[in-house]
Specification:
Strand order of the largest sheet: 1-2-3-5-4
Distance between the termini: 27 Å
Largest sheet: 5 strands, mixed, barrel
Shape: globular
Strand content: over 45%
Number of strands: 5
Helix content: under 10%
Length: 81
């Protein structure tokens, strides 16, 4: 079940499911205490240029959280976003 939440953290690119058939580079949101696979609502789940452009930036995001997947409805970038 997904819950609407607001998270803040750094956008990073790293391996998803390393060592498996599903292994691929994916965009993650690294918060102070957790790492979530990051997607944009309506964005391509495997190759989203808008998300990849945010790699290395600190963001504040609002969206749906379901286990380790965060689907962002709104992303704002900037230090202390």
């Amino acid at each position: 079940m997904a819950n609407m939440v607001e998270l803040q953290g750094k956008v990073v690119l790293k391996k998803f499911a390393p060592g498996s058939k599903s292994e691929h580079d994916a965009v993650f949101l690294e918060t102070d205490d957790q790492s979530y696979q990051l997607r944009r609502l309506g964005g391509n789940p495997f190759d989203d240029p808008a998300l990849k452009a945010m790699v290395g930036k600190t963001v504040k995001a609002k969206g749906l959280l379901n286990d380790q997947l965060f689907i962002a409805h709104e992303l704002k970038e900037g230090e202390g976003a």
